[in-house]
Fold Phosphate regulon transcriptional regulatory protein PhoB (SphR).
Amino acid sequence: MAIVPGDLPQTTFTAEPHGERLLVVDDNQDNLDMLARRLKRRGYEITTAQSGPEALAAVARLRYDAIVLDINMPAMSGLDVLRELRRHYSKLELPVLMATARSESDDMVEALSLGANDYVTKPLNFAEVVARLATHLALRREFTAMRGEVASKVRSTDAMVTGTVVDRRYEIECQIGHGGFAVVYRARQLSTGQAVALKVLRARRAMRAGADGIEYTRFRREMQVIGAVKHPAIVRLIDSGSLELEGGWSSFDDETPDGSTQTNAVTEDSSSDHVAPAMLPPTARVPFFVMECLEGETLAQLLERDQKLSLEDTLELFFPIIGGVHALHRRGIVHRDIKPSNVFLHDGDQRRPQPKVLDFGIAKLKSEEAEEQMTVGFVGTPSYMSPEQALGERDIDARCDQYALGVMLYECLCGQRPFTADNYTQVLLLVTAGEFTSLAKLSAEHEQVSGIIEKAMHRERAHRYADLQDFGRALLEVAPESVRARWRGSLDE
């Protein structure tokens, strides 16, 4: 695709981008890069592909709002790609703008007959490309809004299909996580085009216990916590609401007895492997909340790949985590399930990944006394659980989170957990005994930080640090100078 330099003034455009995601396909790398850059400057999110198979693979991975597709490509032509796209998407669901030479009128006719929404001729006039895209994207937005009006109910929250509109505001793109209580979807906020994470309670769980059950309580609690605490290391709440389910019989996938989105916790009685269909009342409503959409991986995934981290890299992650969890504690909230799978390393605009603490379903609020109604025995994950949690004590406080952070710090630096065994029961016995191999014995280079970890993980909570500020200050003293300079003063906020 060749771009004509003399574009029309921007004032000729009446439709502004809404953050839509576009796929640009051309086998010429120079033309592809030029068009992609100019569309990106207009406010669109751009993905590029240099062949037909690459384009179809991109569409299979992610949902796009429109495609600019070159007709003449080797091996698989743009017409072949269009033919395959129209097997799955209508013209309103996925607008396709074909790029063709002025002399190829037969190709134009065939493209339109195969379902192309429009075409532009080469050499491309960028203003014309943007104007035609804006028109078809506006039509798509209207179609999506109308579809939301008509289909305001969904059959099940467990497997919402791509294109489902939730509460007339969010369009589902794909499922990105699931657990026993809830399912998490990547979605698009229709009003802004912003990518978001939409977490919705599983319908069967919601209907089984009702609004006063564990499921609803934990779900509301997580929403309440992330809405109350504003900190860069705490995932950000954007919105909340409820969606209406169609009545009738609904069957659901097998579930794990876990309230989180990624990991198994031993906090609730297990259900049987076979789950009978649940009858949903005609006016059933299921809560959801919307969070910032994170890109990257969990700390657990990083450790699985790299085994262990350097002291510098570990502390660069830990200081913001400590700050975020301390912000929870200042609001009277104890997380109770700090572990690597509940720390997400977001690939944001910063040079380093930004850690975000997740999953507050079993967090303890200071105002909450009836804990026995929320849990069965104890809450948490055995390998990261404090001795007082493992013993089922009721008066759990912020020092259990400090203990879990100590376990995580140990694991990051030596590549193994302090307590490992063949089953949960044996792990719990080791935790309550409080004896583990010192980090200094496993790695002499970490002798200084070893004593800090042992204090944070002391069997008796009275012997741990008074709070996370003290814990962080102790770590700051043994941090490399580059890390110390960056984080000095942050623990006093």
